[in-house]
Amino acid sequence: MARPPNAAPSSGGGRKPLIQKLLKTPKIPFAVALLFADAILVFLIITYVPYTKIDWDAYMSQVSGFTGGERDYSKLKGDTGPLVYPAGFLYIYSAIHYITGGDVYPAQILFGFLYVVNLAMVLFIYVKTDVVPWWALCLLSISKRVHSIFVLRLFNDCFATTLFHASLVSFLYQKWHLGLIIFSGAVSIKMNVLLFAPPLLLLLLKAMDILGVISALAGAALVQILLGMPFLLSYPIEYISRAFNLGRVFIHFWSVNFKFVPEPVFVSKGFALGLLAAHLILLAIFAHYRWCRHEGGVFSVLHSKLVQMKLKTAHLSSFQLKPNLNSNRVLRTEHIATTMFIGNFIGIVCARSLHYQFYSWYFYSLPYLLWRTPFPSWLRLILFAAVEFCWNIYPSNSYSSMLLLFAHVIILGGLWSAPPEYPYADDTSHKRANLKMKAT
């Protein structure tokens, strides 16, 4: 019997366009295949590569004090010294201790799953933003050091990085309040996530009105208060001074990026203040001349938000409704990811000391950043290989740290020389221009 004209097409006919679409856009199937392949690699690493004992015993000692009822942060210590992470770290590793009994092998399996979940989110971000070509996604899975950080060292950086990527996914979907809550959770595990805070604040100002920004930040602050409540109610000074200590001096031997600097200079206050000044200046320059270029600069963005708030206040006080006063605009996913990744990378370039586990702070953004530069692909791959090479030299030396700094500066220079992208998703002419630039 012939099928009526209005009948729905058969399931077989619906599969063909899907297959054709996947063949035309290989990024999605390639990302899925890469994820499965890397999951197998992680399993093999856990099975055959010996575990490296570094901080795990210290973590377990600190957790044991917490689960034993100790709430004075100055008394929570381990083999490597006192506890210096916020309360979220204790909750995460207390749960791990409960699940694994403190044994390393089951913890490695748990971290293996964490690695795969983190990589899945990163691949989703890369597919969503569509900046990096499909074949370059494999760069996200070839780092020896990052695999080691996750499944052979079991650092808390892994949880902080994973939660940050979860928050970034929320930001890409304009879920700013939810993203801030997840972001604050990442900060509660390790403070390095605050390197993303300056570009994130700028994005919040561009995406929401001032009241929206205040409410989102209040939600993030509430997370910190709730997580730290057991310590804030008992020993608040000890908790705040140790969990949020920004003035720690790291050991020169472990520095991967400034090993060529003499130790007396490295530990000096002047060197730290100089790097902090460079960090703030670079953030200000990028924010004004790159991230807010199309709005007329940072001060123009702030002025427009203040004017918007005054107009809303005036109309509310006069009981007039003005629906078109809401000038919040949807930010493009590429602009969100680019701003966040560059802001963090500036902090990495200006960090006084990068330890080996700190590579996870920015590794997953490296391919994205390299493809945001105007460099040819061969130079991008060389820079990626140079950075990876430096992070796999142990112990680091003057030459490897100079090469790493040189590669970082070259990448940052490329990001500066790239034309700033249009930040909003409501202008088709700029969309076409960006697509044309992407194609070339």
From TrEMBL:
Any GO MF annotation of the entry: dol-P-Man:Man(5)GlcNAc(2)-PP-Dol alpha-1,3-mannosyltransferase activity
GO cellular component: endoplasmic reticulum membrane
Membrane topology (UniProt): Multi-pass membrane protein
Transmembrane residue ranges: 28-51, 83-100, 107-127, 147-173, 180-204, 210-232, 270-289, 336-355, 375-394, 401-418
Superkingdom field: Eukaryota
Enzyme class: transferase
Pathway: Protein modification; protein glycosylation
Catalytic activity: an alpha-D-Man-(1->2)-alpha-D-Man-(1->2)-alpha-D-Man-(1->3)-[alpha-D-Man-(1->6)]-beta-D-Man-(1->4)-beta-D-GlcNAc-(1->4)-alpha-D-GlcNAc-diphospho-di-trans,poly-cis-dolichol + a di-trans,poly-cis-dolichyl beta-D-mannosyl phosphate = an alpha-D-Man-(1->2)-alpha-D-Man-(1->2)-alpha-D-Man-(1->3)-[alpha-D-Man-(1->3)-alpha-D-Man-(1->6)]-beta-D-Man-(1->4)-beta-D-GlcNAc-(1->4)-alpha-D-GlcNAc-diphospho-di-trans,poly-cis-dolichol + a di-trans,poly-cis-dolichyl phosphate + H(+)
EC annotation from Swiss-Prot or TrEMBL: 2.4.1.258
InterPro entries xref list: Glycosyltransferase_ALG3
Keywords (A to Z) from UniProt: Endoplasmic reticulum, Glycosyltransferase, Membrane, Transferase, Transmembrane, Transmembrane helix
Subcellular location: Endoplasmic reticulum membrane
Protein's UniProt name: dolichyl-P-Man:Man5GlcNAc2-PP-dolichol alpha-1,3-mannosyltransferase
Organism annotation: Buddleja alternifolia
Organism lineage string: Eukaryota, Viridiplantae, Streptophyta, Embryophyta, Tracheophyta
